[in-house]
Amino acid sequence: MKINDRVTVKYIKQDKLKTGGISVFFCDSLTKERAYKNTLIQSVLSRGTENLKTAKAITERLQELYGSDIATNVDKRGEIQVISFAADFVEEKFAPGMNLIRETTELIFDVIFNPLTENGVFCKSYFDREKENLNDYILSLKNEKRSYARMRLLQNMCENEAYGIFESGSISDGEKLTNEELYDYYKNYFLKKMNVYIYICSKEEPTEILEYIKNYPPLKNFGERSEVKTGYVENRDIPYENVKHIAEPAEVSQAQLQIGFRANANPGNDEYYATAVMDYILGGSSESKLFLNVREKNSLAYYAASSYIRLKGLLIIYCGIAPDKYDDALDICLLQLKAIRDGDFTDEELQNAKANIARGVRSIDDTVFGKMNFSFNCDIRNEIYDDDVKSIEEYASKFDNVTREDVIEAAKRVCLDTVYLLGGSNE
Amino acid sequence: MSDFYDIEIKEYPFLEEKIYFAKHRSGLKLKFIPKKGFQKKYASCTFDFGAANQTFILSDGTIHESPLGTAHFLEHKMFDRPDKNILEQFSKNCADSNAGTSYSYTTYYFSCTDNFEKNFRLLLELVKNPVFTEESVEKEKGIIAQEINMYNDDPSYVASVKATEAMYKANPIRYDIAGTEESIDNITAEELKLIHGLFYSPSNMVITVCGDISPETIYEITDEYFAGLSPISVPKTIIDKEEDVVLDKKQILVNHGDVSMPLFFIGYKDNTMDYDFNKLHIAGDIIKEAAFGKGTDFYEKMYEESLINQEFYKYYDMDRAFKYMAFGGESKHPETVCERIEEEISRIKKEGLPVKQTRDIIRSEAGSMLREFNSPVALGRLAASLALKNSDPFEFFKLYDEITTDYIEKTFDTMFRGEPVLSIIEEKKAD
């Protein structure tokens, strides 16, 4: 159901859980100009509303509502920045006499659309404290070496693409930002220009709530739809001599190696399923080629794995290595990909990969947040790629059709782009 | 014919749940919660044996004393087989597996989405047929010694150990579950065999299973391992009784390597006597939120004055022979934090807890438990932790309906009869 061009509302049925849920996703194009602001707005909103002025008051309200919680998150899906708010509620059957679906929806809307203001802008102390917290968070990214190395790889590999921007922005983006500017931006951009997806998951279709959402005044202010894109680049071919090699020093006993590839698999068609299976065989488990050959057989790494970023079309191999083992580790990692290109994997490896991915997909149905997230991802793909997979079961069964040849082809499409090393030298 | 008998199915229509209880001729008990339509599955074996079962009477009347840390050492060695490591086997079968030793019980468990039968067999193999050799026992000593040293490097751990030592005079909680570097040096393969034979018998064990599985599958596989066995008696453990000692305030200062801000741990020995274990447990959890949680003026004020930060934590812990409320975190002024908590406690003793809020918190805690019922793994774990306390998750849930704000108030008074133990970890100053 579309309220207007920008706001989509959907009901998702569940029949085995004690709780239902509501998720609200705001989507913006990932930009250096807005990434920091969008993140900061979410934190400031969580501090207090005109009705519930403090975090304490919000906590008390959540306790009244059978101990719910508002989970907030900022991430990127392809080159879309996603700012999400979600809460679950006890289903009416288990909380007789209460209308928790209604009250939780009202609360989450109150937080998003009705922030505490003073002198016509956000409460100053909330703005100051949350800005400080966000800066502390961005600074602390360095402490987690593995995720920091991933962030640096993407910044280097996609330096001229939006995907290289960290989803919460950088400290310098906020240096000159004032409370007045942020509030103005919230009113005139955040609430007016972004695309919004709202999902309600529960046992019975809540017609009254869907009606309430449809008529919720702030949602009516959303005008024309914004265009967002995933940033997938088709068929990128990079000659080996143009591959970027980057090393950054760091005081670590374990160096972090991140190898970035273009997957060259269209996110919207069956190439995706083949690449996902290939990625699983390569580095998706403790039985994978990377784990067995880099870690176990050659003792070159403390961990070795791969991951595939569907919407942007990237494949990344990553491992933790002794700083002086860089050359050997890189070689052996690349050999594992070559092995798959050469068809050097067993039918058992293929079957296990397909079965394990499908099983993982099916377990999405076990949680209310998993179900809502899944629907959101489907809707984005449908909008951008006309991909019409809608149900978890349909999605899971797609992996069954992947053949040995598909996997080999998927591995052949992959093209090395950037090698990044944190700690140690690649000279 | 299966060796299971007395199979009882208890239904909870309001919760849309049911639980199977079954007895086995070998003496073991089974609890099974079916969760139709869920992918995840959970199974565990829990033994009525933990770190506190240190001194016990053998069948010939002699008293045997195991080295401190034996239960935990045994748990580690169970996974080790001459030809394989069972943990890796689980991982190959796409299962997450682990074990835990507390003061009064030891649990081995796994969770998976597929290969349930294979993994369940592996679990039973794990607990039933261990192999202990002197060589592998010696090797383990180094590993566990490192684990113990690692804990001792952790300042917040040191803060809690110092405080619990001061709270209890003669109680197993004084000693770390892992033992000490010296005590584990006395553990032998012989000792592990003896303990395994005495305490890991089916008579001392509960199997808990949760997930979309048929009960017949569980019966059949269990029979493969335990059919034809008869119950044996389990030795009686000598455990020090809980002490009814009301403490005076104590403060302990420790200088430790590098802490950027002083760390503190505040422990209140709970002096409630003659209580229902599960009910008191719930009361402890409710009190910590109702009196000191994020929804209280107390917390808001402490946070605003920067006496505490987001690292502030609180928990209620209880076992058969000890129970206490704990607060901890970082603060530039730990003594002031402790004084504020003491003042707040006396204030509440006089003025009581806010009734509506306490009621909301009772409901909110019930809500958290209900959320756990959504996950076969969380529910299975909960069922396993209650298996030896003669309860199950659904009976436990009913207690939230029975608990009144009056009961919470009364418990508050008995819980805080004594004064706190405060331990502070400060940075070691260079001399």
Keywords:
heterodimer; A: 427 residues; alpha+beta; Cytochrome Bc1 Complex, Chain A, domain 1; five-stranded mixed sheet; 20% strand; globular; B: 431 residues; seven-stranded mixed sheet; 15 helices; 22% strand
Overview of the molecule:
- The complex is a heterodimer of chains A (427) and B (431).
- With 427 residues, chain A is an alpha+beta fold.
- Chain A is built from 16 helices and twelve strands.
- In chain A, the strands form three sheets. Chain A has a five-stranded mixed β-sheet with strand order 1-7-2-4-3, sandwiched between helices. Chain A has a five-stranded mixed β-sheet with strand order 8-12-9-11-10, sandwiched between helices.
- In chain A, helix 10 crosses helix 16 and helix 13 packs antiparallel against helix 15 (392-398).
- The mean pLDDT of chain A is 93.
- With 431 residues, chain B is of the alpha+beta class.
- Chain B folds into two domains: 4-237, Cytochrome Bc1 Complex, Chain A, domain 1, CATH 3.30.830; 250-427, Metalloenzyme, LuxS/M16 peptidase-like (Cytochrome Bc1 Complex, Chain A, domain 1), CATH 3.30.830.
- Chain B has helices spanning 70-78, 86-92, 116-128, 134-153, 155-167, 181-184, 189-199, 215-226, 277-292, 297-304, 334-351, 355-372, 376-387, 393-402, 405-415; strands at 4-12, 17-24, 29-34, 41-47, 55-57, 63-65, 96-101, 106-112, 205-211, 236-237, 250-256, 263-269, 313-319, 322-330, 421-427.
- Chain B is globular, with a radius of gyration of 23 Å.
SSE layout and pairings?
The complex is a heterodimer of chains A (427) and B (431).
Chain A: E1 7-13, E2 19-29, H1 35-45, H2 55-64, E3 70-77, E4 80-90, H3 100-113, E5 117-118, E6 121-122, H4 124-140, H5 145-157, H6 171-174, H7 179-193, E7 195-202, H8 207-214, H9 217-220, E8 244-248, E9 255-262, H10 271-283, H11 289-297, E10 301-309, E11 314-321, H12 326-341, H13 347-362, H14 368-385, H15 392-398, H16 404-413, E12 415-422
Parallel strand pairs in A: 1-7, 8-12
Antiparallel strand pairs in A: 2-4, 2-7, 3-4, 5-6, 9-11, 9-12, 10-11
Helix pairs in contact in A: 1-4, 10-13, 10-16, 11-12, 12-16, 13-15
Chain B: E1 4-12, E2 17-24, E3 29-34, E4 41-47, E5 55-57, E6 63-65, H1 70-78, H2 86-92, E7 96-101, E8 106-112, H3 116-128, H4 134-153, H5 155-167, H6 181-184, H7 189-199, E9 205-211, H8 215-226, E10 236-237, E11 250-256, E12 263-269, H9 277-292, H10 297-304, E13 313-319, E14 322-330, H11 334-351, H12 355-372, H13 376-387, H14 393-402, H15 405-415, E15 421-427
Parallel strand pairs in B: 3-9, 11-15
Antiparallel strand pairs in B: 1-2, 2-3, 4-8, 4-9, 5-6, 5-10, 7-8, 12-14, 12-15, 13-14
